[in-house]
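Entry: Response regulator
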Amino acid sequence: MVQKAKILLVDDRPENLLALEAILSALDQTLVRASSGEEALKALLTDDFAVILLDVQMPGMDGFETAAHIKRRERTRDIPIIFLTAINHGPHHTFRGYAAGAVDYISKPFDPWVLRAKVSVFVELYTKNCQLREQAALLRLQLEGGGTNGDGGRETAGLLAELSARLAAVEEQAEALTKQLGEDSADAGVVATAAHLERKLTGLRRALDALEPGASGGAAVLPAQG
Protein backbone atom coordinates (compact mmCIF):
# COMPACT_ATOMS: atom_id res chain seq x y z
CA MET A 1 0.00 0.00 0.00
CA VAL A 2 1.36 3.40 -1.01
CA GLN A 3 1.99 5.63 1.97
CA LYS A 4 -0.05 8.83 2.03
CA ALA A 5 1.74 12.10 1.36
CA LYS A 6 1.70 14.83 3.98
CA ILE A 7 0.48 18.33 3.14
CA LEU A 8 1.35 21.17 5.52
CA LEU A 9 -1.35 23.83 5.99
CA VAL A 10 -0.10 27.03 7.62
CA ASP A 11 -2.56 29.74 8.70
CA ASP A 12 -3.14 31.61 11.97
CA ARG A 13 -6.93 31.52 11.53
CA PRO A 14 -8.61 28.20 12.48
CA GLU A 15 -11.52 28.82 10.09
CA ASN A 16 -9.08 29.09 7.18
CA LEU A 17 -7.41 25.82 8.15
CA LEU A 18 -10.80 24.17 8.39
CA ALA A 19 -11.71 25.44 4.91
CA LEU A 20 -8.44 24.13 3.44
CA GLU A 21 -9.02 20.73 5.02
CA ALA A 22 -12.50 20.61 3.50
CA ILE A 23 -11.13 21.46 0.05
CA LEU A 24 -8.21 19.01 0.16
CA SER A 25 -9.88 16.11 1.97
CA ALA A 26 -10.88 14.62 -1.40
CA LEU A 27 -7.20 13.99 -2.18
CA ASP A 28 -7.13 11.42 0.66
CA GLN A 29 -3.71 12.52 1.93
CA THR A 30 -2.48 13.41 5.42
CA LEU A 31 -3.22 17.05 6.24
CA VAL A 32 -1.09 18.63 8.96
CA ARG A 33 -2.07 21.93 10.60
CA ALA A 34 0.25 24.71 11.74
CA SER A 35 -1.12 27.95 13.20
CA SER A 36 2.11 29.95 12.89
CA GLY A 37 5.39 30.09 11.04
CA GLU A 38 7.21 28.81 14.11
CA GLU A 39 4.87 25.83 14.38
CA ALA A 40 5.35 25.07 10.69
CA LEU A 41 9.15 25.06 11.03
CA LYS A 42 8.87 22.72 13.99
CA ALA A 43 6.72 20.28 11.99
CA LEU A 44 9.25 20.37 9.15
CA LEU A 45 12.02 19.21 11.49
CA THR A 46 10.61 15.69 11.77
CA ASP A 47 8.22 15.06 8.87
CA ASP A 48 8.54 15.06 5.08
CA PHE A 49 5.91 16.98 3.13
CA ALA A 50 4.81 16.90 -0.49
CA VAL A 51 3.74 20.57 -0.55
CA ILE A 52 3.20 23.49 1.83
CA LEU A 53 0.20 25.85 1.68
CA LEU A 54 1.40 28.99 3.43
CA ASP A 55 -0.64 32.03 4.44
CA VAL A 56 1.20 35.31 3.82
CA GLN A 57 -0.36 37.50 6.51
CA MET A 58 0.36 36.04 9.96
CA PRO A 59 1.28 37.75 13.23
CA GLY A 60 4.90 37.41 14.29
CA MET A 61 6.70 35.43 11.59
CA ASP A 62 4.81 36.07 8.34
CA GLY A 63 4.68 33.80 5.31
CA PHE A 64 7.63 35.40 3.54
CA GLU A 65 9.91 35.01 6.57
CA THR A 66 8.71 31.45 7.13
CA ALA A 67 9.44 30.57 3.51
CA ALA A 68 12.92 32.07 3.80
CA HIS A 69 13.70 29.77 6.74
CA ILE A 70 12.32 26.77 4.85
CA LYS A 71 14.46 27.48 1.79
CA ARG A 72 17.61 27.89 3.90
CA ARG A 73 17.33 24.39 5.34
CA GLU A 74 18.91 21.57 3.36
CA ARG A 75 16.16 19.17 4.41
CA THR A 76 13.26 21.37 3.30
CA ARG A 77 14.56 23.66 0.56
CA ASP A 78 13.01 21.63 -2.27
CA ILE A 79 9.50 21.35 -0.82
CA PRO A 80 7.07 23.27 -3.07
CA ILE A 81 5.39 26.25 -1.38
CA ILE A 82 2.04 27.68 -2.48
CA PHE A 83 1.38 31.11 -0.97
CA LEU A 84 -2.19 32.01 -0.06
CA THR A 85 -3.11 35.63 0.61
CA ALA A 86 -6.25 37.66 1.24
CA ILE A 87 -4.63 40.84 -0.03
CA ASN A 88 -3.17 41.84 -3.35
CA HIS A 89 -0.70 44.71 -3.48
CA GLY A 90 0.01 44.25 -7.16
CA PRO A 91 2.86 42.68 -9.16
CA HIS A 92 5.55 43.71 -6.67
CA HIS A 93 3.84 41.83 -3.85
CA THR A 94 3.40 38.77 -6.06
CA PHE A 95 7.04 38.93 -7.14
CA ARG A 96 8.10 38.96 -3.48
CA GLY A 97 6.25 35.69 -3.04
CA TYR A 98 8.04 34.03 -5.95
CA ALA A 99 11.36 35.51 -4.84
CA ALA A 100 10.82 33.88 -1.43
CA GLY A 101 10.72 30.50 -3.18
CA ALA A 102 7.04 29.92 -3.86
CA VAL A 103 5.95 27.85 -6.86
CA ASP A 104 2.56 29.59 -6.89
CA TYR A 105 0.88 32.63 -5.38
CA ILE A 106 -2.90 32.46 -5.01
CA SER A 107 -5.16 35.29 -3.88
CA LYS A 108 -8.23 34.64 -1.76
CA PRO A 109 -10.99 33.92 -2.47
CA PHE A 110 -9.69 31.17 -4.73
CA ASP A 111 -11.40 28.47 -6.76
CA PRO A 112 -11.36 25.27 -4.63
CA TRP A 113 -11.11 23.10 -7.75
CA VAL A 114 -8.07 24.98 -9.01
CA LEU A 115 -6.30 24.79 -5.65
CA ARG A 116 -7.04 21.07 -5.33
CA ALA A 117 -5.74 20.43 -8.86
CA LYS A 118 -2.50 22.33 -8.20
CA VAL A 119 -1.87 20.51 -4.93
CA SER A 120 -2.63 17.14 -6.52
CA VAL A 121 0.14 17.67 -9.09
CA PHE A 122 2.76 18.11 -6.37
CA VAL A 123 1.39 15.18 -4.39
CA GLU A 124 1.66 12.97 -7.47
CA LEU A 125 5.24 14.07 -8.12
CA TYR A 126 6.17 13.48 -4.48
CA THR A 127 4.60 10.01 -4.45
CA LYS A 128 6.36 8.94 -7.63
CA ASN A 129 9.65 10.33 -6.35
CA CYS A 130 9.29 8.26 -3.16
CA GLN A 131 8.65 5.16 -5.27
CA LEU A 132 11.75 5.91 -7.31
CA ARG A 133 13.87 6.16 -4.16
CA GLU A 134 12.57 2.80 -2.94
CA GLN A 135 13.32 1.18 -6.29
CA ALA A 136 16.78 2.76 -6.34
CA ALA A 137 17.51 1.36 -2.89
CA LEU A 138 16.48 -2.13 -4.02
CA LEU A 139 18.63 -1.78 -7.11
CA ARG A 140 21.65 -0.76 -5.05
CA LEU A 141 21.21 -3.84 -2.86
CA GLN A 142 20.94 -6.04 -5.94
CA LEU A 143 24.07 -4.57 -7.51
CA GLU A 144 26.05 -4.76 -4.28
CA GLY A 145 25.04 -8.40 -4.00
CA GLY A 146 26.60 -9.09 -7.40
CA GLY A 147 23.37 -10.01 -9.13
CA THR A 148 24.70 -9.87 -12.68
CA ASN A 149 24.23 -13.41 -13.98
CA GLY A 150 21.50 -16.03 -14.06
CA ASP A 151 18.45 -15.35 -11.90
CA GLY A 152 20.21 -12.42 -10.25
CA GLY A 153 20.84 -10.83 -13.62
CA ARG A 154 17.23 -11.24 -14.70
CA GLU A 155 16.06 -9.75 -11.39
CA THR A 156 18.36 -6.78 -11.82
CA ALA A 157 17.16 -6.28 -15.40
CA GLY A 158 13.58 -6.36 -14.14
CA LEU A 159 14.35 -3.76 -11.49
CA LEU A 160 16.04 -1.55 -14.06
CA ALA A 161 13.04 -1.78 -16.37
CA GLU A 162 10.58 -0.99 -13.57
CA LEU A 163 12.68 1.90 -12.30
CA SER A 164 12.98 3.28 -15.82
CA ALA A 165 9.20 3.10 -16.28
CA ARG A 166 8.58 4.86 -12.98
CA LEU A 167 11.09 7.55 -13.86
CA ALA A 168 9.42 8.06 -17.24
CA ALA A 169 6.11 8.65 -15.45
CA VAL A 170 7.72 11.28 -13.20
CA GLU A 171 9.37 12.92 -16.21
CA GLU A 172 5.99 13.14 -17.91
CA GLN A 173 4.44 14.71 -14.80
CA ALA A 174 7.33 17.17 -14.50
CA GLU A 175 6.98 18.17 -18.15
CA ALA A 176 3.27 18.85 -17.64
CA LEU A 177 4.02 20.84 -14.49
CA THR A 178 6.68 22.91 -16.25
CA LYS A 179 4.22 23.68 -19.04
CA GLN A 180 1.52 24.63 -16.55
CA LEU A 181 3.82 26.90 -14.55
CA GLY A 182 5.09 28.49 -17.76
CA GLU A 183 1.54 29.30 -18.82
CA ASP A 184 0.57 30.67 -15.40
CA SER A 185 3.59 32.92 -14.92
CA ALA A 186 6.85 33.89 -16.55
CA ASP A 187 8.35 34.80 -13.18
CA ALA A 188 11.99 33.85 -12.67
CA GLY A 189 11.22 32.07 -9.39
CA VAL A 190 8.77 29.72 -11.06
CA VAL A 191 11.13 29.01 -13.93
CA ALA A 192 13.96 28.28 -11.47
CA THR A 193 11.79 25.82 -9.53
CA ALA A 194 10.85 23.92 -12.68
CA ALA A 195 14.47 23.91 -13.87
CA HIS A 196 15.64 22.51 -10.52
CA LEU A 197 13.21 19.61 -10.79
CA GLU A 198 14.29 18.91 -14.36
CA ARG A 199 17.97 18.83 -13.32
CA LYS A 200 17.26 16.27 -10.61
CA LEU A 201 15.35 14.06 -13.04
CA THR A 202 18.05 14.40 -15.70
CA GLY A 203 20.73 13.30 -13.21
CA LEU A 204 18.71 10.26 -12.20
CA ARG A 205 18.02 9.34 -15.83
CA ARG A 206 21.74 9.50 -16.71
CA ALA A 207 22.66 7.33 -13.73
CA LEU A 208 19.98 4.82 -14.67
CA ASP A 209 21.07 4.70 -18.31
CA ALA A 210 24.64 4.00 -17.18
CA LEU A 211 23.41 0.88 -15.39
CA GLU A 212 21.83 -0.59 -18.51
CA PRO A 213 23.59 -3.66 -19.95
CA GLY A 214 26.28 -2.63 -22.41
CA ALA A 215 26.61 0.90 -21.04
CA SER A 216 30.18 2.17 -20.85
CA GLY A 217 31.81 3.66 -17.80
CA GLY A 218 31.15 0.88 -15.31
CA ALA A 219 28.65 0.94 -12.48
CA ALA A 220 27.03 4.27 -11.73
CA VAL A 221 25.91 5.55 -8.38
CA LEU A 222 22.26 6.53 -8.32
CA PRO A 223 21.90 10.06 -6.91
CA ALA A 224 19.96 10.61 -3.72
CA GLN A 225 16.62 12.25 -4.38
CA GLY A 226 15.56 14.78 -1.80
